[in-house]
Specification:
Distance between the termini of chain A: 35 Å
CATH class of the largest domain in chain A: Alpha Beta
CATH architecture of the largest domain in chain A: 2-Layer Sandwich
Distance between the termini of chain B: 12 Å
Strand order of the largest sheet of chain A: 3-2-1-4-5
Order of helices and strands of chain B: EEEHEEHEEEHHHHEHH
CATH architecture of the largest domain in chain B: 2-Layer Sandwich
Oligomer: heterodimer
Number of strands of chain A: 10
Low-confidence stretches of chain A: 279-284
CATH superfamily of the largest domain in chain B: ATPase, nucleotide binding domain
Largest sheet of chain A: 5 strands, mixed
Largest interface: A-B, 22 and 22 residues
Helix content of chain B: 40-55%
CATH topology of the largest domain in chain A: Nucleotidyltransferase, domain 5
Largest sheet of chain B: 5 strands, mixed
Helix content of chain A: 25-40%
Shape of chain A: elongated
Structural class of chain A: alpha/beta
Number of strands of chain B: 9
Order of helices and strands of chain A: EEEHEEHEEEHHHHEHEH
Number of domains of chain B: 2
CATH topology of the largest domain in chain B: Nucleotidyltransferase, domain 5
Chain lengths: 284, 265
């Protein structure tokens, strides 16, 4: 018996396959981005290949994330908040606060025994999300994944005066031409984002320890900046990107087992391993 | 009879004018680029050529805008709010409100019959409330800024953006293009979103007639039409709306020169 969680984020698509006991069989990540949009089926296919399984071997598939509504091979959709809470709980059973920073939003969640009890999120303004770092990395001509490491070499933080990502993009280029060091600018950028995320977290109230997930949690400079902004210990799962997909697979397992125990037949409508669509009718 | 210069270095465009007393003689607009000092210099040399003058003919120069500090030859600096009010008062003496739609921000200014600022508000530091949103979308549509308004005007079905953020709006526009949405509907959607943001800004200071529009954003006629519908009023636009703040700067230069020399203005 196998289960799958498919998390279609704005930047990355993540698939987690588990067996009945919850062991990870495969975790595959692929870009969701503009050119690679709608390739959820490809990511799923890779995950199935790695685990040497067929789509019909999977007992139940949960889709989550921003693009969850149009996955033609999923059996049900669950919000990324519930999936994240479940995913965090599976790795850190005692943790009560988690912050997920993705490419298009940031969510601060209160978790009680694996269930989401409260949350605040920002999906209105790119300046409080991972997109802020993506856009400024591009403007500075460096790779997103190198940003954190470079920022650790900073000798000071260059204050970024613009809040808006678009204006900050212009500002960092001007700062470079003014002779500011790249690492110091990066430290300033991480600090600016961390301050905004911390403000979001404080609206909910943070009970340490805090777990940080999402793609931005892979950025060591960001973890450091968050630690400084919130003045508390920050835990990061081994693979922070797959937390939502993992939670999805765990919930798929639970839903399936509950149905089996109740003697109900779960309708798994015909799955099509086809492209997912964005901004579909259902989504708007 | 004396000549004055006003230089307005904006984040996207640099504008300059020469006036003979309070009358416009020459104007020049260029892209600001990375070096504002070079832009300021280019503005000055082009203006003096256009006005058939030398640098020494200019009695006083006032600098304004985002990069005012880079205008090394200026005699003084003035706030862009004050300059915009003086400039619009010069071309539209009846204006009591002016909306300045620039790249970095949108400003709504109330002024009296003498061009004195009585109240103002500036858009939050957000590209979605300024002309920058138009620039960003024009860039991904691969069209010239000048073509944006006419393109949007052809739309019968402006799209509604699902976001109030210019960065997310950019991604959304890319997706919509790949879905085959006509360019004009996208451009009109941008104007609709921007007009709605500007309209709520206007309501903060209360609109008093006559309300004029200036700044580079005023060149986007479709935006102004959308804004007119949104505010339910007509919004006159001066012939060269982008130079109004620079014109105001020259007027400030003229005013301070006359007050120093003891003459009555």
């Amino acid at each position: 018996m196998y289960f799958a969680g498919v998390d279609i984020g704005s930047t990355m698509t993540k698939v987690v396959l588990t067996d009945k006991a919850g062991n990870l069989l495969s975790t595959i990540k692929g870009p969701t981005g503009a050119e690679h949009r709608q390739l959820a089926n490809e990511v799923m296919r890779q995950a199935l290949n790695e685990a040497s399984l067929q789509i019909d071997d999977i007992s139940y598939i949960v889709a989550t994330g921003y693009g969850r509504l149009n996955v033609p091979f999923a059996d049900c959709q669950i919000t990324e908040l519930s999936c994240h809470a479940r995913g965090v709980h599976s790795r850190f059973p005692d943790v009560r606060t988690a912050i997920d920073i993705g490419g298009q939003d940031a969510k601060c969640m209160k978790i009680d025994n694996g269930r989401l009890v409260n949350f605040v999120m920002n999906d209105k303004c790119a300046a409080g999300t991972g997109r802020f770092l993506e856009v400024t990395a591009t403007a500075l001509g460096i790779k997103l994944e190198d940003m954190g490491d470079i920022s650790l070499k900073a000798t000071k933080k260059v204050q970024i005066s613009n809040l808006c990502t678009i204006f900050a993009q212009q500002e960092v280029v001007a700062l470079i031409s003014r002779g500011e060091k790249l690492e110091n600018i990066l430290a300033g950028l991480h600090d600016a984002l961390a301050c905004r995320i911390a403000a979001l977290g404080r609206r909910l109230g943070i009970e340490p320890d805090l777990v940080l997930t999402g793609g931005v949690a892979k950025n060591i400079g960001m973890v450091k900046a968050m630690k400084e902004s919130l003045d508390c210990e920050i835990l990061v799962p081994e693979e922070p990107l797959i937390t939502g997909a993992l939670g999805g697979a765990i919930l798929a397992n639970e839903i399936y087992m509950k149905a089996v125990a109740a003697g109900e037949a779960l309708s798994t409508k015909a799955r099509r391993l086809e492209k997912a669509t964005f901004f579909g009718e259902e989504h708007r | 009879m004396s000549w004055f210069m006003g230089v307005d270095i904006g984040s996207a465009y640099s504008k300059g004018v020469i006036t003979r007393d309070l009358e416009l003689v020459a104007s020049h607009t260029i892209i600001s680029g990375a070096n504002y000092r070079t832009s300021a210099q280019a503005i000055r040399s082009e203006l003096t050529i256009k006005g058939k003058l030398t640098d020494n003919d200019i009695v006083a120069t006032v600098a304004t805008g985002y990069g005012a500090d880079s205008v090394y030859f200026a005699d003084q600096k003035a706030s862009d709010i004050v300059c915009t009010a003086r400039g619009i008062n010069n071309v539209f003496p009846q204006a009591r409100t002016v909306i300045d739609i620039a790249s970095q921000s949108t400003k709504v200014i109330r002024l009296n019959e003498n061009g004195i600022v009585t109240n103002f508000t500036v858009s939050e530091k957000c590209a979605a409330g300024s002309g920058r949103f138009v620039e960003v979308i024009a860039h991904i549509l691969r069209i010239d800024l000048a073509d944006f308004g006419p393109l949007a005007a052809r739309s019968e079905n402006p799209i509604t953006f699902g976001t109030g953020c210019a960065v997310f709006g950019e991604s959304e526009a890319i997706t919509r293009i790949s879905e085959g949405i006509p360019k004009e509907d996208l451009a009109a959607g941008v104007n609709k979103a921007l007009a709605s943001k500007i309209s709520s800004l206007v309501k903060k200071v209360r609109l008093e007639q006559t309300c004029a529009v200036c700044g580079g954003g005023a060149l986007n006629t479709s935006l102004i039409n959308t804004l007119e519908k949104e505010l339910n009023t007509t919004l006159p636009v001066p012939p060269n709306p982008q130079i109004i703040t620079a014109l105001g700067a020259a007027i400030v230069a003229a005013a301070s020169a006359t007050s120093q020399s003891g003459e009555k203005p």
